[in-house]
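Morning. Coffee machine broken again, so started the prediction first thing and wrote up yesterday's gels while waiting. Chain of 263 residues, entered below exactly as on the submission form.
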Amino acid sequence: MNQEGFNEDLESAPLAGEKRRRRAVFLLPNLLTTGALFAGFYAVIQAMNGHVEHSAVAIFIAMVLDSLDGRVARMTNTQSAFGAEYDSLSDMVSFGVAPAVTVYSYALSTMGKLGWIAAFVYCAAAALRLARFNTQVGIADKRWFQGLPSPASAALIASLVWVGIDKGVVGADIRWVAWLITVFAGLSMVSSFRYYSGKDINLRRSVPFFTIVTIALIFALIAIDPPVVMMVVFLAYAASGYVCAFWPRKTTCKRDGSGGDLP
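Came back before lunch.
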């Protein structure tokens, strides 16, 4: 082999290794994704059997696992194309189908066509949201999500059901509230409003002591009444995109990655 051919092989070797890594199936992040998928599937089964409180908790568990798999993949350098696609399919079950079936079983089933149409709008919006997100990977500003993230939307639906069950409220009595929140969550996912992603937070960076105290106080607040606090938190997050968009002053969330204003 001549020197020129040898140099070409050296240049192509890293590229070939990168392609193999992108096609690889890594255990740890995909194990977490499978756990999230199982939690979503479990939520659907429990909702079909009328145990919607179990469904709500399972959706929250799926959300926690989903938030971990991507971070673990980045920290261990085990990102892959397979993992990204698998994660999207898992999200569709856990944050698209599961919340729609759960809220339908709890409250919307008493509304006839209006009920299942609202559930379908939410489910379709989750699919569109995930498809749009996949096309924007590596292009959009990672600090912001375009549209309400599907895990946060699912958590809003799950917390609504959780609050109702915890307070002894019959789903039929709040069916219009559930209908409005379901449609609101679905439309927010496919909106162009920006939501803070938190991806620019560096977990390896040192923080002031007061930050740790604040986190402890947040956990204490959640412990007072978990269903209500969780619903308030996710409802506030869902509303933050609208507040930011219609706030009269120019804010960070109205600017694109280059510093220009969004249309």
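The radius of gyration is 21 Å. Going to sketch it on the whiteboard this afternoon.
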